[in-house]
Amino acid sequence: MPIFLTILPDDPRPIYQQVADGIKELIAHGRLPEGASLPPVRQLAADLGVNLNTIATAYRELQKDGLIAVKHGSGSVVTSRKTNERSQDELLRPLRTALTELILAGLSPAKIETIVMRELKLAAKESE
Predict the structure, then answer these.
(1) What confidence tier does 28 reach under pLDDT thresholds 50, 70, 90?
(2) Is the pLDDT of residue 102 over 60?
(3) pLDDT at 87
(4) What contacts 105, CB < 8 A, 6 or more positions away?
(5) 35 domain residue, yes or no
(6) One-character DSSP codes across the chain
């Protein structure tokens, strides 16, 4: 199954993080179910036009989060849709960062709530 990821040059996140976050989103929305094989590092690097070490770093991050299993010589597979071993505080950290960015951008709490609810509904709909 092909993986559709987009690397944005103006995104402040490092490329490996964009790749890891993109794969996490595919897992969360059920587009990469448990047991699904990921493309080999070299293939995904070539497809995205990035260094293979960038993809290897993304895969290591996903493995550290318990979302994939990397088996050298036989590829990487999705192991779970949940990151049970991480604390709630760890899981909320990126949300807090995003909320801080929205506040610093001048958005009102009401506008932020509208945005968050819209995105939550979209994410829930996509994972059905």
Answers:
(1) confident
(2) yes
(3) 76
(4) none
(5) yes
(6) --------TT-SS-HHHHHHHHHHHHHHTTSS-TTPEEPPHHHHHHHHTS-HHHHHHHHHHHHHTTSEEEETTTEEEE--S--TTS-HHHHHHHHHHHHHHHHHTT--HHHHHHHHHHHHHHHHHHT-
Closest CA to 78 of 92, 59, 56: 59
Give the rounded distance of the alpha carbon of 16 from its chain centre. 10
Q: Is residue 7 part of a domain?
A: no
Look up the domain containing 92 and give its range: 88-126
Q: What is the CATH number of the domain that holds 37?
A: 1.10.10.10
Rounded to whole angstroms, the Cα distance separating 4 from 65 reads: 21
Number of domains in the chain: 2
Only one residue has tokens 């192991």, namely 79
